[in-house]
Amino acid sequence: MSPITGTPILTAAEMRSAEAAHGDSAFLMEQAGQGIAGAIRRLVAGAEVLILCGPGNNGGDGYVAARLLREQGHAVRIAAAGEPKSDLARAARTRWDGPVEPLAEAQPAPVLVDALFGTGLSRPLPDGVATDLHRLAEAARFRVAIDLPSGVASDDGCCLSMVPRFDLTLALGSAKPAHLLYPAAGLMGEVRLIDLGLAPVSRASVMRRADLPEPGPASHKYSRGMVAVVAGRMGGAAELAAVSALRAGAGYVLHLGGRDPKGAPHAVVRRRWSAEALDDVRIGAVVIGPGLGRDDDARARLDAVLASGRPLVIDGDALHLLDPDAPRGAPAILTPHQGEFDALFGKGEGSRIDRARAAAARSGATVVLKGPDTVIADPDGRVIVATGGSPWLSTAGTGDVLAGATGAMLSAGLSPFDAATAAVRLHGRAAVACGRSFIADDLAAALSRVR
Prior knowledge:
Layout: E1 2-3, H1 12-22, H2 25-43, E2 49-53, H3 57-71, E3 76-80, H4 87-94, E4 100-102, E5 111-115, H5 127-139, E6 142-146, E7 168-172, E8 190-194, E9 204-206, E10 226-230, H6 235-248, E11 252-256, E12 269-271, E13 283-288, H7 296-307, E14 312-314, H8 316-321, E15 332-334, H9 338-345, H10 352-363, E16 366-369, E17 375-377, E18 383-385, H11 398-411, H12 416-434, H13 440-450
Parallel strand pairs: 2-3, 2-5, 3-4, 5-6, 6-7, 7-8, 9-18, 10-11, 10-13, 11-12, 13-14, 14-15, 15-16
Antiparallel strand pairs: 1-8, 16-17, 17-18
């Protein structure tokens, strides 16, 4: 049992392919059962366990885990939602020599293990099954889901039925999209991986610790990265982005346009807006969009930035003025929240992973689809999904902080995909450092502490 950090994310079809490539399904079920039993034994301190088994292979994993727990002297019962229907599940059932209670008649236990339905569920649970699952979950002190909570769609994180909240979810073989995508991700509790010895191949993965650029003995302000932040109608947003770029590690930040607010850091260099200011070859990234506005002046500034040939971070208002299909002469990172994303790319189908990946391919830019389950997609098809987002980030200005931090990473020479990943990681860690009820100014300051 290990964290899912940095591991591949597999859809249901990709998981089936990985299992088929392994070839020994019975061995995989035994491995899964051993991992489940070992995790439960370590966590529940001898409390009685009730395992709910479904008719498929998820239920088969439950039968194996129950058998192994019983062999080790642990108090365990099984309640089933019907007879096993797969060959593997039937074989696992025959090796369990204890009673099997009908799900509808099952009495609660301190520990509930949900092995009813896992990866690949495509329809709501039968009403009676859903009712009994909730009844037993509400009565338990500790709730464990095997692979996924029953009622969750594995590929997009949607809930096909009302799903209880679990304390622990044991992902079998690989992380699935639903482990990370909301609303399902909010019901998982802690997610831990049971390694089955597969060799999964996926272009999507869970965010790991990011490699941030570090200055060396020969570093100077320009080699660390020069960021230009283009201001507009709301100067405070651009100010947040500029300060955040410095605190995230940029060596030089040029604030173009806007007023010099009282008490602003003297380290930010300020000039009047002009397209010619972007001709400085030392500029490693331009951030545009925070507080830009959407009038003709804002559009003219965006056009000048797009024509500059500098690497870009495009956020906020600039996303509403951008043509995602127009060619650009430089790498770009787009940082929309869901509303901005829908306005820019339309309300398409598929998961947030699918939509972000399609948007990146269409626009030729790295796309950071912000949210509690931030998705970073590259035009080449790679995707990283962040974990551990703080709900306290839902306050004005935190997106401006991310834009500035992203500009710092891009100006330091990281690829757009790596720059976006590093910035999202740093931004998330800063939010954790801030704790509760912070404002965006606190978040910007916390970037230095986290760095």
